[in-house]
Amino acid sequence: MRPVVALIDYGSGNLRSAEKALTRAASETASGHDIVVTSDASVVAKAERIVLPGVGAFADCMAGLAALPGMIATLNDRVLKHGAPFLGICVGMQLMARVSREFGDHLGLGWIDAEVVKLTPADLALKIPQMGWNELTVTRAHPLFSGLPAAAHVYFLHSYVMRPVHKSDVLATTDYGGEVTAAVGRDNFAGMQFHPEKSQAVGLTLLGNFLNWRP
């Protein structure tokens, strides 16, 4: 039986693009994975690795995730207890934080001691949301970034950013009128504020690395 990557469908996320990119990455790296889009916690419970996408407001995304029977408990069990490799994308990464300040205070999964705050570039000419290509600066060596070209650029679309308490949780940053957290991670879970599924060759490399990551 081929190993499964569970791509969680909770009513928020660019699932078609993420599914297509993961399927291509699995093919190009010969990882042998099947990519399964699912809202069923029992499928997630049996998956070898898990991807949580997300677009929109933090509170709406967290509510959508909580509305899936048993999903949050299953995520905590598979990721925190049993060590399944996990990747959060955009708001899917932000949901890993302790709390978001977007339109009030809203609790997240609490896997990363961090808050999600409004993006406030020092250069007032920079528009919000941050939308487009920005250079990725890797701040801590990690298997997810193996084989990236020098000055790799990735695609961002967001108005809020994660601010981790511990710098050791930050894997990469970008510059948008100041330092912005671009990727976080610890142990077997990681998150990317940018969209690897929209980041062309660099994104496919990142997704391929995730599929072959053995934390």
Task: Give structural notes.
With about 220 residues, this protein is an alpha/beta fold. The chain has helices at about 15-30, 40-45, 60-65, 70-80, 90-95, 200-210; strands at about 5-10, 35-40, 50, 85-90, 95-100, 105, 110-120, 130-135, 135-140, 155-160, 160-165, 170-175, 180-185, 190. The protein has a single domain (about 5-210), classed as Rossmann fold, CATH 3.40.50. It contains 6 helices and 14 strands. A hairpin with a 3-residue loop joins strand 12 (about 170-175) and strand 13 (about 180-185). The longest helix is centred in the N-terminal third of the chain and has 15 residues, at about 15-30.
Q: Can you summarize this structure?
A:
With 215 residues, the chain is of the alpha/beta class.
Topology diagram in text:
Elements: E1 4-8, H1 15-29, E2 34-38, H2 41-46, E3 49-52, H3 58-66, H4 71-81, E4 86-89, H5 91-94, E5 97-100, E6 106-107, E7 112-118, E8 130-135, E9 137-138, E10 153-158, E11 160-164, E12 170-175, E13 179-186, E14 189-192, H6 200-211
The succession of helices and strands, N to C, reads: EHEHEHHEHEEEEEEEEEEH
Q: CATH architecture, please? A: 3-Layer(aba) Sandwich
What class would the helix/strand composition place it in?
alpha/beta
Strand order of the largest sheet: 2-1-3-4-14-13-12-9
Major sheet attributes: 8 strands, mixed
Assign the CATH superfamily: Class I glutamine amidotransferase (GATase) domain
Distance between the termini: 22 Å
